[in-house]
Amino acid sequence: MEYPIQDGLKATQAASVSGTKGPGSDMFAVIAIMGGVLLVAAGGIAFALWSRHRFTH
Q1: How many domains does the chain have?
Q2: 43 phi and psi angles, rounded to 5 deg
Q3: What is the DSSP string of 1-18?
Q4: Would the pLDDT of 48 be above 70?
Q5: Residue 55 pLDDT class (50, 70, 90 cuts)
Q6: What is the pLDDT of residues 2-40, one digit of tens each?
Q7: Residue 44 pLDDT
Q8: Are the C-beta atoms of residues 24 and 15 closer than 8 Å to each other?
């Protein structure tokens, strides 16, 4: 049985392995996201330490 919706479909290259320079392939964005993750992690660690010392006294 032939499905008409699949006629004319071709394999395309995934964007993650594409070597072309696009709007999402900026190294500054990767560094900015990593910095944001580290900032949130540092805030979470600081809050955990603060709350541990706050509730023990």
Answers
A1: 1
A2: -65, -40
A3: ---GGGTT------GGG-
A4: yes
A5: confident
A6: 555 655 556 555 555 555 666 656 888 899 999 999 999
A7: 97
A8: yes
Closest CA to 28 of 36, 38, 19: 36
In order of 4, 12, 31, 55, the CA distances from 16 in angstroms are 29, 12, 17, 46
Q: Going by C-beta distance under 8 Å and a sequence separation of 6 or more, which residues neighbour residue 22? A: 15
pLDDT of residue 8: 59
Domain ranges, residue 32: 4-55
First and final C-alpha spacing in the chain: 73
Question: Which pair of tokens denotes residue 19?
Answer: 């070597």
